[in-house]
Amino acid sequence: MTAQRTPAGHIVAVVSDVDGTLLRTDKSLAPRTVEVVEELRRAGVKFAIVSSRPPRGMTAVIDRLGITTPIAGFNGGIVALPDLTVIASHLIEPDVARHAVDAIGAAGASAWVFSGRDWYVRDRNGPRVPFEQRTVGFGPVAVDDFAAVIGTAAKIVAVSDDPALLNKLQDEVRVSLSGCAHIARSQSYYLDFTHPLANKGHAVQEIAARLGVSPANVAVIGDGENDIDMFSKAGLSIAMGNGDADVQQAADFVTGRNDEDGAAAALEWFVLRGQRTPMVGGGAPRKVAQ
Predict the structure, then answer these.
(1) 1, pLDDT greater than 80
(2) How many CB atoms lie within 10 A of CB 26?
(3) CATH topology of domain 13-89+199-289
(4) Is 94-194 the same fold as 13-89+199-289?
(5) Which residues, other chains included, contact 289 with Cβ-Cβ below 8 Å and sequence gap of 6+?
(6) How far apart are CA 244 and CA 224, in angstroms?
(7) Is residue 19 within 8 Å of 266, Cβ to Cβ?
(8) 274 confidence band (pLDDT: 50, 70, 90)
(9) What is the pLDDT of residue 260?
(10) Quick one: pLDDT band at residue 288, thresholds 50, 70, 90?
(11) What is the CATH number of domain 94-194?
């Protein structure tokens, strides 16, 4: 739990991560989660989503939850209406994008480039490509090189199933690209590169502004390293029980795991019921919803 901070008591909007938070590991939305989002809507609490996914890969969740608020994809690189009309964008500078792709290749990882509505890869059968295709609901465009799209990249991803390799790469590029890119893990096997303003903290501020509410009255919930940025920008932050220890430590509260419908439990307890005490099974020093 975050030290020296009093979570907001009055919440008028929620901004939620998608994968590992709203969605179960099999990428399904639990009926309980759908019901709680509808209860929030009936209670007058606005509900938005932010994700490392491309906006195009968020449409199934938008439709299933009946989302009517702006959404943010690419960790905030694109803010769009639910019909995917872009209302704000933060693209990576071309020189920075080229540096990122070169560094990824030198490290021995695979590079993906997301530009416009499409996802570009060099190898359709590369690591995690089939998995990502199932996740976002559309396939990649295979190219020999990224020259034609590198100048309009919203997100670049280093992909590897070797966590140590990505850890080393992350340390290196945070030095070589300091101040030029936002670099964070969205999954243990994905290292995301975006514009410095394309982070979930800034995305929460942009969404709150477009909703006409203060971030101090917004609750956020997520499970990943890239979600930590939004924890400090919102009035109430909740980490998923499946998140790493540093993610949980950065939040005001910790709920159950995504496969246990932890997001639904937390939204019901902390937002709909307005509780700021542990649920049954919770305990110091963390405040836990189950």
Answers:
(1) no
(2) 7
(3) Rossmann fold (3.40.50)
(4) no
(5) 238, 253, 254, 255, 256, 262, 265, 266, 269, 270, 278, 279, 282
(6) 7
(7) no
(8) very high
(9) 94
(10) low
(11) 3.30.1240.10
Q: What is the pLDDT of residues 208-247, one digit of tens each?
A: 999 999 999 999 999 999 999 999 999 999 999 999 999 9
Contact between 211 and 201 under an 8 Å Cβ cutoff? The reply is no
pTM of the model: 0.90
Task: Using alpha carbons, list the distances in angstroms from residue 255 to 8, 72, 220, 233, 238.
Answer: 17, 23, 12, 19, 7
d(CA 233, CA 220) in angstroms, rounded, equals 9
CA distance 280 to 57: 36
CA atoms 232, 238, 243, 249: torsion sign = positive
Query: What residue ranges in the chain does DSSP mark as E strands?
Result: 13-16, 46-49, 71-73, 78-80, 86-89, 110-115, 118-121, 141-142, 153-159, 182-187, 190-194, 218-222, 236-239, 253-255, 288-289
Interval 158-212: pLDDT, tens:
999 999 999 999 999 999 999 999 999 999 999 999 999 999 999 999 999 999 9
Q: Which tokens go with 74? A: 């690419």
**Torsion angle of C-alpha atoms 112, 245, 165, 159, degrees rounded to 10:** -10
Q: Residue ranges per domain, the chain? A: 13-89+199-289, 94-194
